[in-house]
Every structure is written in C-alpha cells, then in structure tokens.
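thought: user wants a sequence for this fold. calling inverse folding tool.
action: design(structure=
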C-alpha cells in the first residue's frame, strides 16, 4: 500500500511539473510574439530613434533603457526648452499614454507622430522597448 501511494505521489508530481513547464513555455512564446510584434511596430519610430545606447539621431534621442528615464534625461541630446520643463519619468503607463496621444502629454515633442490607436500595438511596442 505504501509503495502504491509513493508511485501516485511521484506521478502527480511529474504531471504537475510537466504542466508548469508547459505553462512557462506558453508564456515565453506569448512574450516572444509580443516582443516581435513590438519590433515590427518600431518601424514607426526608426526614422528618428534608435534602440542602441549612445546612438542619438538628429531628430530624436536613443530609446535604449527608456523606461525609468526622466523625460529629457540624456545629457548628450539637445532637447527643446519646452520639453526640458516637463517633469515626467517614462513608465509603462506614461509611455502608453504618450503613444496614444503624444501631443496631449508632451506638446511640441515628436510632432510628426500623431499616436497609435491600438492598445495592443502600444503594448507590443512597450514590450519591445522594455526588452532593450
């Protein structure tokens, strides 16, 4: 009887571990797909921005490690005075709001960009930037 109970416990543990591994793999696959979609969405930004540290362009600062950075927070980029006056830190929530309606959050910044209506596209882009 004791041996049978031990076999049942071992089998249940193995099933539980396999299910947990499958759930982790599924979550990783979804994260990878979201990141890939975000990389595709970055096409909207690439004319003015890079995701490589120190690679500012004439039109925009690099976006490497953007989350947690203060707006106008790079010493090696020349921001407008209007943008320098805004006290803001790039969080996921702030970035989502800016991506949705950029001119409402930070007037006079990135004027050609009018926003992204799709919440899914914004979340994908944020996942991509977060992964840099």
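)
observation: tool returned 132 residues.
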């Amino acid at each position: 009887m004791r041996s049978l109970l031990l076999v049942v416990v071992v089998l249940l543990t193995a099933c539980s571990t396999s299910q947990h591994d499958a759930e982790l793999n599924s979550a990783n696959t979804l994260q990878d797909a979201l990141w890939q979609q975000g990389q595709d969405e970055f096409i909207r930004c690439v004319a003015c921005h890079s995701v490589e540290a120190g690679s500012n362009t004439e039109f925009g600062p690099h976006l490497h490690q953007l989350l947690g950075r203060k707006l106008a927070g790079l010493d090696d980029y020349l921001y407008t005075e209007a943008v320098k006056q805004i006290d803001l830190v790039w969080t996921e929530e702030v970035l989502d709001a800016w991506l949705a309606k950029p001119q409402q959050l930070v007037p006079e910044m990135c004027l050609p960009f009018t926003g992204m209506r799709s919440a899914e596209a914004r979340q994908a882009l944020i996942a991509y930037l977060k992964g840099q």
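thought: summarizing for user.
answer: Here is the designed sequence. The helical segments are 2-41, 81-84, 92-100, 102-105, 119-130.
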